[in-house]
């Protein structure tokens, strides 16, 4: 769910770029620093985790979260087992059904003495019920907003005006996603907190990937969280609002959240979650881990302050080194694929030296961001001419998908961000293969050397790329026309224009393709 792209595209169309920063927030320097606590050692979960890690020196363990319901339950289970600290960093933390559920469990954890730090990017932040204000008044909960707007809950006009007047700053966002409990276990990947990411929404249902992580990589994630929590762009929520710290506000929030959670428990979705409880290990039960040497990679928060590209502040060089080391195959999954001229030629050069390069992205019909698709279209033919194999996820046709990967929801849209190299090295994180992730937003993820985890992510890719689930795009060498190949009810079908897309999306893409906005997407 990338509403920043739409803002970028239409703000550009309105010539907002002619207006440079006219009113900017001062750095948030007057705030107390805090840092992660030592890894827990006195809880049953910590003792189990440490025993597992001790058997794999210098390695970290991972479990892949493919099912949306499992991803939600694993977060709730970790929060419920927390004894000392919980750190959350998200681009989106929605005030919806699943967001309220997590808020309630975070509040319960704080009540039993757990320190909770919540860092949210302000681009999509809403607090109309003042629930975050209330949580922030709890002595054990602190909320900070990253790179905030100057007003709380702005109207559409106010929001657009602020982007116009403070364009260079507000066009740069924190896209990181992590949840760290007791500095001993973490969830890292592509999911935000909100109904669409857990199959609980009524509109878009994102197909995404996270990992539950234990071992040394968790302490690396905690250090990265501290860098963002204490940076100048992170503002205490209290400094941005007029909310008081009254007990009445927190008491009112408790009543609201209790009502929300009761409604959740009575919903059809909650029953589905119970019915689909996985039989294998989750974040809160014993089971096998994928082991391997791992590195947490994260852009520096100062990346949003630079007026030029500073490679030392971003993770791109490490991912490029991983990709350049490929000998046989690269599998890349990205919802928004805008490689740019340089990235396009780089992928083609890999093909020319014998590496198979496959990319799974959204089709026009499945994407939630037509601006991103318009950028992708610029490079599609050249990629195909160079031998890169392209697959575009189909929107659900109503058939049940394999529950181990694509779930059962309708209106699916790809949101996972992964790279697998030679069936051994894996990247899972928040970074899309586009110019916005490369140059404007901050991103994070993990790089793991683990054949087992690589195979699990490869299975996700291969199932998603099946002809029943995705279009394979090809280029006729004589006519240079694109074709989309798939199967319907077991029969091969071929389309010669973007399949299944509605008129609105086609018109939007046609308009956006005329704008030179690739560097902003």
TrEMBL record:
A family per Pfam: PLDc_2
Occurrences of domain PLD phosphodiesterase (ranges): 170-197, 410-437
Keyword Signal: yes
InterPro entries to which the protein is assigned, alphabetical: PLD-like_dom, PLipase_D/transphosphatidylase
Signal peptide feature range: 1-21
Location of region: Disordered: 28-53
PANTHER family registered for this protein in UniProt: CARDIOLIPIN SYNTHASE, CARDIOLIPIN SYNTHASE C
Identification of the protein by name: Phosphatidylserine/phosphatidylglycerophosphate/ cardiolipin synthase family protein
Organism from which the protein derives: Dyella halodurans
């Amino acid at each position: 769910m990338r509403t920043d792209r739409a803002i970028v595209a239409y703000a550009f169309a309105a010539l907002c770029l002619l207006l440079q920063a006219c009113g900017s927030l001062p750095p948030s320097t007057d705030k107390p620093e805090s840092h992660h606590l030592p890894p827990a050692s006195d809880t049953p979960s910590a003792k189990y985790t440490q025993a597992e890690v001790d058997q794999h020196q210098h390695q970290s363990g991972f479990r892949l979260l493919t099912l949306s319901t499992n991803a939600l339950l694993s977060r709730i289970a970790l929060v419920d087992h927390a004894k000392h600290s919980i750190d959350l960093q998200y681009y989106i933390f929605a005030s919806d059904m699943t967001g309220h559920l997590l808020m309630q469990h975070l509040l319960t954890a704080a009540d039993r003495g757990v320190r909770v730090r919540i860092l949210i990017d302000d681009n999509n932040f809403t607090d109309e019920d003042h629930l975050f204000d209330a949580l922030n008044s709890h002595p054990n909960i602190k909320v900070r907003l990253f790179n905030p707007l100057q007003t709380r809950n702005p109207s559409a006009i106010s929001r657009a005006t602020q982007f116009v007047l403070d364009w260079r700053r507000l066009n740069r966002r924190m896209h990181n996603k992590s949840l760290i409990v007791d500095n001993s276990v973490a969830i890292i990947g592509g999911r935000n907190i909100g109904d669409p990411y857990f199959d609980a929404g009524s509109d878009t249902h994102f197909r995404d990937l996270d990992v539950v992580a234990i071992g040394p990589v968790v302490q690396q994630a905690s250090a990265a969280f501290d860098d963002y929590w204490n940076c100048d762009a992170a503002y205490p929520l209290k400094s941005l609002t007029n909310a008081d710290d009254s007990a009445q506000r927190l008491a009112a929030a408790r009543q609201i959240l209790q009502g929300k959670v009761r409604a959740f428990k009575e919903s059809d979705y909650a029953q589905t979650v119970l019915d689909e409880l996985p039989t294998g290990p989750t974040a809160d039960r014993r089971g096998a881990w994928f082991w391997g040497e791992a590195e947490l990679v994260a852009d520096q928060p100062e990346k949003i302050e630079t007026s030029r590209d500073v490679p030392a502040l971003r993770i791109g060089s490490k991912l490029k080194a991983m990709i350049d080391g490929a000998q046989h195959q690269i599998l890349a999954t990205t919802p928004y694929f805008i490689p740019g001229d340089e990235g396009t030629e780089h992928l083609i050069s890999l093909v020319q030296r014998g590496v198979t390069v496959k990319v799974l992205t959204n089709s026009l019909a499945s994407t939630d961001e037509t601006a991103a698709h318009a950028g992708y279209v610029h490079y599609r033919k050249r990629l195909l001419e160079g031998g890169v194999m392209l697959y575009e996820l189909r929107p659900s046709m109503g058939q049940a998908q394999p529950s181990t990967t694509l779930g059962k929801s309708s209106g699916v849209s790809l949101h996972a961000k992964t790279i697998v190299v030679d069936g051994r090295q894996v990247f899972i994180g928040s970074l899309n293969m586009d110019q916005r992730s490369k140059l404007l937003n901050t991103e994070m993820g993990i790089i793991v050397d683990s054949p087992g985890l690589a195979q699990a992510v490869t299975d996700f890719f291969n199932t998603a790329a099946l002809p029943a689930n995705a279009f394979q795009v090809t280029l006729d060498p004589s006519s240079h026309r694109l074709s989309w190949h798939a199967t319907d009810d077991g029969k091969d079908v071929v389309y010669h224009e973007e399949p299944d897309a509605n008129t609105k999306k086609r018109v939007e893409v046609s308009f956006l393709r005329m704008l030179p906005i690739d560097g902003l997407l």
